[in-house]
Amino acid sequence: MKKIFISILVLISALTMQAQNVLTPEQQLEKAQKELEEAQKALEAAKAQAEAAKVKAEAEKIKAEAEKTKAEAARLKAEAERMKQEAEKLKKNAENSAPATKTSVPATETVPAMKIQDNATKKHNTTGTSEGAGWVVPTVTEEIEEKKVEKTAEGVVLKEDPKYLAGAIQLNAEGKVEFVLDTQANGKSADEIYNIVFQYMSKLIKNEQNINSRIPLVNRNNKNEQIIACIMDEWFVFNQSFISLDRSETKYQLVATISDNHLHLSMTRIVFNYEEGRSTGFKEPAEKVITDKYALTKKKNDLAKIYGKFRRGTIDRKNQIFNDLTKLVRK
């Protein structure tokens, strides 16, 4: 009986200890919260340490830049001092050589006839020397050429290069803006001209301002008249700086008609899409943008403020393409 009682007491003690080791849900939650807080503290400490390291690295970088700037300033100061010394040296040399020049003058005074010079002769002496003064340093009188002032037919002074003004934009029979190039090709065959133009246009559609240019059609069935059709879609950049970019998407067609010793190239169907999505934007054909009515001032002596840049950009692009191809086929 005594043994049984002792066994029961031992069992009760073991159960009590086990119950003490098992945490209630509230205790488990509290423990988890403490562990989370400790983890957050450790994370904050790690972040602070990383930030401190970053600040330290930045400070070291700034310090290195300052040292570099200081060294450059010292170099510039030394260079300035050297140039100053060189200037003083040159000045002293000039002062030392001045008396030698003056001593040679009295030698000419022994000939009185040379001292007298006619006033009319002085006026026409373009070199600025005196015939009776012995050895002197000659000076050349520069003739100022008057700048030619260009005017319109009505006598209005031009404020812009004439190539952008009246007569620069031509309309075809349909009333559309069209630029045309007709040129001989130095005796080249149609096939030779075709290859030159096709290679040029293949590079043209891949220029750095390209948007979606392509060569959709060619026709070589007629050996006496071969055709290349190119659709250009590119940016016309009017002004570009570090903080701003003024440009317009510009679409146009280039059609080359080729025969033996001849190239006919037209630039037509020009459309501008400017600042799409903005209140100042527009999408208009060339007829409503770069013709004289829209792109020139009332006096026709200057480009208009709004559309003038489109006229200049179009003419410059046309001239570039036409001049390039003219040189290539005439080579």
TrEMBL record:
UniProt keywords, alphabetically: Signal
Record-annotated membrane-spanning stretches: none
Domain DUF4468: 182-272
Polar residues compositional bias, start-end: 95-107
Bias type Basic and acidic residues, positions: 82-94
InterPro entries in UniProt: DUF4468
Leader peptide range in chain numbering: 1-19
One family name in Pfam for this protein: DUF4468
Positions of the UniProt region annotated as Disordered: 82-113
Record's protein name: DUF4468 domain-containing protein
